[in-house]
Amino acid sequence: MPKRLISTKNIFNNKNATVIALVKKIEFQVTEDYRQLNRLRGDLLRASRSKTIARISNTVSVKAVSMGLNPTTVVDKDRLLVRISKYKRQNSFLQYASRNQAVIALCANFEDFINRVIEKYFEEDPSRLSKYKQTVTSDFVIKTVQRGDNLHRTLSERLSSDLMYGGVKEWYKQLKKIGMNTDSVPHTVHEAFLIRHCIVHNDRKVSSQLHLKNQNKYQLRRDIRLTVDDIEHMKRDLHEAMKFIFDEYNRLFPIQRGTWIDYAKSDDGD
Question: How many domains does the chain have?
Answer without folding.
Answer: 1
